[in-house]
Amino acid sequence: MSDPGSDTAPDTGLDPAVAGRLKRNADGLVAAIVQQHDTHEVLMLGWMDDEALHRTLSTGRGTYWSRSRQEYWVKGETSGHTQRVVEVRLDCDGDTVLVKVDQTGPACHTGADTCFDADVLLANSRDD
Amino acid sequence: MSDPGSDTAPDTGLDPAVAGRLKRNADGLVAAIVQQHDTHEVLMLGWMDDEALHRTLSTGRGTYWSRSRQEYWVKGETSGHTQRVVEVRLDCDGDTVLVKVDQTGPACHTGADTCFDADVLLANSRDD
Question: What's the CATH fold of domain B1-128?
Answer without folding.
Answer: Ubiquitin-like (UB roll) (3.10.20)
